[in-house]
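Exercise 7. Given the components listed, write out the predicted structure of the assembled complex. Treat all entries as one system.
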Amino acid sequence: MLLFGVYREFAGQAELGLELPAGSTLAHLVSELRSRSGFDRLPDRPAVARNLTYASLDELVEAGDEVALIPPVAGG
Amino acid sequence: MREPTIVAEITAEPLNGGELSARLRSTEDGAVVVFEGRVRDSNQGRPVVRLRYEAYAEMAERVLTEIASEAGSLYEVGAVGAAHRTGALELGEASVVVVAAAAHRAAAYDASRYVIEAIKQRLPMWKEEQYADGSTAWLGERPVEGEAR
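Answer.
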């Protein structure tokens, strides 16, 4: 999965590989991440994109999906 | 009604509202609003010396195209162009440019405003400010709203 901005700094890297059981949702993925060191500051319901589109945390993650965590945006 | 011309770009190159406006010129459009957002020298009282923008580039291009297209269908415009810069920017440089061209001014102003507000709400773009004392901070201005929250 891809990490940007301040979330990238939590991880110290821009990409992370995660293995999740079949049937996992984006919410499961977020909760797995939050248990890792550095990610305790990640909100429990961060914005997430799946395959380049904002996604609901209820969506299932499938093998090969591109998942990104989206920190609060600050464009303009 | 004409099908509006849509331009949306995420780029590390310097932006220029006049140049984007010239690219979207049409003799059918009598009103053109050019908006440039520029790097300001302070934020909430802290002196800023430079900024760095980071994008989720592939998604940002898609979202910016969606935003410009939405403005093109909501308002009677001939063209909507939007470009956002990435990388390190000095004070006074343009970070974002929006051009809305229409037969009449009301639609051009409305479309321009729509695009910049939507960029602020949902373009996957992040800003790191660097201050005079050498420290830096990521700005977290707006959590994206929607189903994910």
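Discussion: The mean pLDDT of chain B is 94. The beta strands of chain B are 5-11, 31-38, 42-43, 46-55, 77-85, 87-90, 94-102, 125-131, 136-139.
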